[in-house]
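okkk here we go again. third time trying to get the magnesium ion bound version out, last two times i messed up the smiles copy paste (missing a bracket lol). double checked this time i swear
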Amino acid sequence: MSPLAAFGTALTALRVNALRSFLAMLGVIIGVAAVITTVSISQGAKRAIEEQISSLGANALMIRPNSSSRGGRRGGFGSGTPFSDADTIALRDLPYLAGASGTIGASGTLVVDGINWPSDVEGVDADYFDIRDIIIEDGRAFTQAETEARARVVLLGKTVERELFPYGGAIGSSVRINNIPFDVIGLIASSGQSSGGRDRDDIVYAPVSTVRSRLSGFRYPGVRDPVNAIWVEVRQGYDVETVTAQLTDFMTAQRNLRIGQEADFVVSNFADFIRARNESEKMFSVMLAAVAGVCLLVGGIGIMNIMLVSVTERTREIGLRLAVGARPRDIRNQFLVEAIVLCLAGGLFGLAFGAAGAYGVEKIGEFAVSIEPMVALIAVGASSLVGIIFGFYPAHRASQLNPIDALRYE
Amino acid sequence: MGALIQARDLRRTYRMGGMDVHALSGVTLDIEAGAYVAVMGASGSGKSTFMNMLGALDQPSSGQLIINDIALHERSADELAAFRNQTIGFVFQQFNLLARTTALDNVGLPLLYSGMATKERHARAAHCLEMVGLGDRMDHHPSQLSGGQQQRVAIARALANNPRILLADEPTGALDSRTTQDVMAIFDQLNREGITLIIVTHEDEVGAHARRQIIFRDGHVLEDRR
Ligand SMILES: Nc1ncnc2c1ncn2[C@@H]1O[C@H](COP(=O)(O)OP(=O)(O)OP(=O)(O)O)[C@@H](O)[C@H]1O
Ligand SMILES: [Mg+2]
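finally!!
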């Protein structure tokens, strides 16, 4: 019997028992749907994390004072001492860094023509945009000269621009921040998504020196030109881990700490930090996938059960087929194809339901899902494999029947 | 070259609860090509057992069976399948049609296993249905046909692969006398056209259609009338 004829025979048999076929498929449908939904959710989460990492700047490190106060330490020395512009300048000379920028965070109310908009004002150096992979959509970044001169220039994030300049024309206009006039010299491209409910486009950037002296008033006894933190970019071709260690040594020397003394600052690699934070979530998704796999197994056993019943019930039919010339392997293939068609159809339905479930979760739970073609392919492939594995025994049993015994079966 | 069917000391023994039941205990006979044979005898005398051997539906416990120069007792499962498919047409008392399957597809079933393409298969099945006078019932399911019509579909199925031998085990057992006549008319015609025909029956009128009557008793050939 040709494969096509075997397929036709199987389809006919499944159609005749449509309800039972559907019930037999149900286990596989649920199993595959569960696999697709859970994997899509965890893939979506993984992708969101990667996006978050790349939006932080893939090679960016942040150096900041260790803010945790330690017992036995006196104020004025040790914990909390900020870095300064001098540190930033020293860091720029290091061969393994491509750039360094001090940062000072402040907030301010921006006013244009009677429109008020409170926002975060981030004081940064010109290097900052490259370090954090921030794209300047229009206009320009500030120059080193402007930074040194504490120029009142500002770049606006998308949200701020939209609120203050709904009709465009931001560049070249003047904005008052806490009543101090600034010139808008550039616009920042949207970072694409919000993280943790915070709109990352609701921000403006000004030179760090300007923010320090005019907006935040950040001062620290004994430190000239302090900054909250310093961001650096590891030069292409250098290993981030190694550079982190080298930076720690360099800053230890810079801050006159004794060898062996605990560093009063941290160099953080945000990519690692975020990955580590999501390790537990990954474990969770592995467990979900395992549960889904068990569902598929149970589905397979359901298929085997139904196929065994079907073989028993159709013993006379098998006898007749043998009597008119079916070979044992024709009978085996017929039932095997039935099992595979059941599982494959179950897999495809499961795929549809799983995709629908994943999108439902995206809508309701408001987190991104990602259905990868490869995962879909594997899930459907796995379900046909289940069909072959669990369909084989009943099919083999059917093929071993003796024609006359099968015909006489009551 | 001997006869078309050569049975030599055929035996078939069933073990039932520690006891041996001898359904066939040494049957030796020849049947020539083109013969028209009625197999008769009391219930339980071994007629069906003998027919099932001839149709390769069952294997002898001992003895030799050569049909169409094929020694059935020493063939593999696949070779026996091919034999059932090509050389034999079998008609059962209970018709044994596939439910929820059209007459056309029922008749085409043996052709499916001989690997015939769909179009050819449908044409050949339609031709066979016309031979038994059911050209207008091709799309009917068995449940939509009378007993006589169902048996004619079963005969058409037995003829699908143009077999040399037609075996019928009480083909009219489930039919009334009128439809029995219709079915026997078809058998007579087929034998005239050259097919070797062996029919098991209890009815003398049916047996009278044959040119040879073999009477079984207790697994033996009691009488062989020509
Ligand atoms: N599967 C079996 N297991 C045990 N005994 C069997 C089996 N099949 C047949 N027999 C026995 O073999 C003997 C011959 O049976 P068979 O069916 O050949 O009789 P028959 O001549 O066809 O009878 P009938 O006219 O009633 O159909 C009987 O005694 C029967 O009980
Ligand atoms: Mg009988």
